Amino acid sequence: MEATTKTRGRKAAAPVEPVEGLTQAEETQVAGALAAITEEVNVVTALEQKQAVAFDLGQQVGRIQALRFISAVAEKPLVETFIQIRETKKYKDIQIQTSDGDFRTAEDFFEFCELVFGKSYKTLAEMAQNYEALGGELFEQAERIGLRRNEYRALRALPAEEQKLVQITLAEAGDRESVVGLINELADRQAQERAALRKEIEDKDADIRAKDKLIEQKSDRLNDAEAKLARRVTMPEHELAADVEESLNGATAEAIGALQKLTGPLRAMDDEFPDGRPSNLVSAAGGALSRILLELQSLAAAHGVALMFADGFEADAAV
Hints:
Layout: H1 24-88, E1 96-97, E2 103-104, H2 109-117, H3 121-134, H4 136-145, H5 149-156, H6 160-172, H7 176-234, H8 237-259, H9 263-272, H10 279-303, E3 307-308, E4 314-315
C-alpha cells in the first residue's frame, strides 16, 4: 500500500560540505563521525517505516474483526425476522423490488427467502433451529465464536439436559474451544450409548429369531410325527414294521455315537499309566461300562428282547 512505502516524520539527511583548514587526520575523524551519524539516522528511519507498516496492518485487522463481529450479530435479527415472517405468512403482502426496478410479491416463501434474505429457505430454517435450541442471546454468542453447521447439528441431536450443559458453558466460558470440546465429548458419549443400545437390541432380536426357529423346528417335528401317526393307522403291517425298524436303527446310531464319548477317557487311562493302571481307576471304568450293560439288560427285559453278543452268547430277556 502507498502508506507503507512512504517515510514518516523524518527527512533524509542533506549532504555535508567539507570544512576548510582541517588537517588530513581531522578530516578523516569528521568523515567517520558523519558516517556513524548517517547510519544511526538510517536505522531510525527503517524503524519508523516498520512501525508505520505495523500500524496500517493493525488497522486492517481491526476492521476485519469488526466486520466479523457485525456479521455474527446481524445473523440474530435476520433469523428472528425469518421466524416471524414464516409464522405469520406475511410475505404474501410484502412488495419486493426486483433487479429491473419493478415491485412484486414473491411467488412463494422459498423465492421470498432468496430475494430478501439472500439465503435459501433450507439454510434459514436450519439457522432457525439453532436459534430455537439456544435462545437469542446464546445464539448470538455461538455465532460470535464461530460455531459451524456440523457443530450446531451435533448440539441439536443431544438430549435436552445435555444441551443445557452446552448452554451453560457457552454463557460462562464463551470460547470456541471449550464449547466445541464439550459438544464433541457429549456427542461421542451419545454415539457409544446408541451403539451399545443397538447391540443389545440386535442380540435380543437374534435370541428371538433363534427361539422362533426352535419353535418352528419343534412344530415341524410335531407335524411330521402327527402325519406319520395318521399314516400308520392305514399302513400295512410290513410297512409299519419297516418304519419302526428305521426308527430303531436311527436311535441305535445315536446311542452308539454317545457311547463313543467313553473312548477318550478309556484311552487316556491306558496312555497315562503305561506301567500299570491304578486299581481304583480300573474299577471305575468297569463300573461305568457295567451300568451301561445293566441299562441295556433292563431295556431288553422290559420289551422281551434277547441280547446278543459278539461271541455268540445270548442273554435271555428275563435276566
